[in-house]
Amino acid sequence: MSDLDPHVHQPARLRILMLLSGVDSADFAFLQKTLQLTKGNLSSHMARLERAGYVRVTKAFHGNMPNTSYRLTRLGRTRLAAYWKAIDEIRHGAE
Length: 95
Prior knowledge:
The chain is an alpha+beta fold. The chain has helices at residues 6-9, 11-21, 28-35, 39-51, 74-93, and strands spanning 26-27, 55-62, 65-72.
């Protein structure tokens, strides 16, 4: 049985990765509103995912307003897929 990746297994980070896996990219405000996380909580999780190489952060300006967007990296997609595989192994082992 595979070990569960602690970067993915944490509930908020799993939700973040799942959301990012379905879109090209998402900005901070969208993630915060959709996931209903505080700014500090979302920032902390995103920093951890960025350090692990699972998300790529892009900072830009839209007009005079700063905008931070996030994209799932290839590594992030691979690790999310491996997580689901490990969950399936656990599930099937329990049958």
